[in-house]
Design a protein that fits this description.
single chain; 3 strands
Length: 114
């Protein structure tokens, strides 16, 4: 008898059903959990607009996104028309993920604050 068969025999059919119900519940929660860092926010312009107007993107980040995030953030337009976003090291990955939920990665460059 394999380890899996032994496990199923020990927990009986009721245990198997409970195990499957919990697995389905956890999966549903993981995929339906509301993960909106800025509640109700929608970018006022599309990616094509911000590609031509990077200063508008920097202003949008400063005014609407950064206040909702933790840590210190700043945005500035680079010479190649992208927006350089500087994020505090402790909050780098959550803040970067939140920003990328609203704006395309082709418009942005990220760096950690020193």
């Amino acid at each position: 008898m394999s380890a899996g068969e032994d496990f199923v025999r020990r927990i009986r059919p009721l245990g198997c059903a409970l195990f499957l119900i919990l697995a389905v519940a956890v999966t549903v929660l993981c995929f339906t959990l509301n993960n909106d860092p800025v509640k109700g926010y929608e970018a006022p312009e599309d990616t094509a607009y911000y590609a031509v107007h990077p200063e508008a993107l920097a202003a949008e980040l400063e005014e609407h996104i950064f206040p909702a995030l933790e840590g210190d953030e700043s945005a500035q337009v680079t010479g190649d028309g992208k927006v350089l976003v500087t994020l505090e090291e402790a909050y780098y990955y959550p803040s970067r993920g939140a920003i990328l939920q609203y704006f395309d990665t082709s418009l942005l460059e990220f760096q950690q604050a020193e």
